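Limitations

Structures in this collection are predictions, not experimental determinations, and the ligand pose is part of the prediction. Treat each record accordingly. The example that follows, with nicotinamide-adenine-dinucleotide as the small molecule, is included so readers can see exactly what is and is not provided: the inputs are given verbatim, and the output is the predicted complex.
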Amino acid sequence: MAILIDGKKTSQDIKNEIAARVAEIKTEGGKIPHLAAILVGSDGASQTYVGAKVKACHEIGFESTLVRLDETISEEELLAKVEDINANPDIDGLIVQLPLPKHISVEKVTDKIKPDKDVDGFTPSNVGRMALNWPAYVAATPYGIVELLKRYNIETSGKHCVVIGRSHIVGSPMSILMARNGYPGNATVTLTHSRTQNLKEIAQTADILIVALGKPEFVTADMVKPGAVVIDVGIHRVEDASKKSGFRLIGDVKFDEVAEKASAITPVPGGVGPMTIASLLYNTLLAAEKKVYG
Ligand code: NAD
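Predicted complex:
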């Protein structure tokens, strides 16, 4: 049976570390980190995600500002709002919750965020800096995975890492991070996607398998090498009448059977998910302390 890579506990450890630093900053009379989030429209999932981020800020002693905008807002008005926050010296980090309404260009809005406030790590500047192995804000989900690998002392050097999925927010950055010269990194990386042939055979050769394709329980035990480390990024709600909520969460990996074969595995829920918010908070602390852009 695999070791459980516990993202819930690890994210709480990170939040405690950040809260301790905030307490020190207060004692030193320094500036309390301040995160601003822009939420456009009333999408239920987006409201839940932003709500969880704002709540986490309060828990660890950060200041936060939630800017709610109507979904009819024009692109220019939204860009102007981003400019306002860029220019506000009191705000250290800015996130714009995605998705945005169809009439607004995600690229234009992302590109408008000042790179030194881009704590989501989505701007071209931060993606480029990450690829160059320069100090950068790394996108929260990949950063959370890197932190889990570190805190569980997973050996990555010389290993074969297979990433399934090439999205801009998870798979692609993950493949860059695992290949870069450092720890975790120095892996030989295969980035796979929807056009990949023989995915099963490729997955079977992975020492580290990072799964982010967004298909429930896609990875089964026959796709996994005995002793592999398996990181499951997927999150899906499935109906479950036995639960009070009426649903439960599952990942992109068939957990029970893969856990029998792997040496270490992240569960869903309680794996990568909670790490994402902890990473965002950590990036905001870095921004407040000017530790990336100086
Ligand atoms: P996405 O839909 O943007 O990208 C999916 C990728 O998977 C694409 O690159 C596609 O080419 C690839 N793909 C699709 N079908 C495939 C197949 N049959 N074989 C190989 N590759 C295939 O997804 P995303 O935003 O990267 O999210 C992936 C999953 O991770 C989703 O379930 C999402 O909810 C979850 N997610 C979780 C967190 C978290 O905090 N835990 C954060 C982001 C995303």
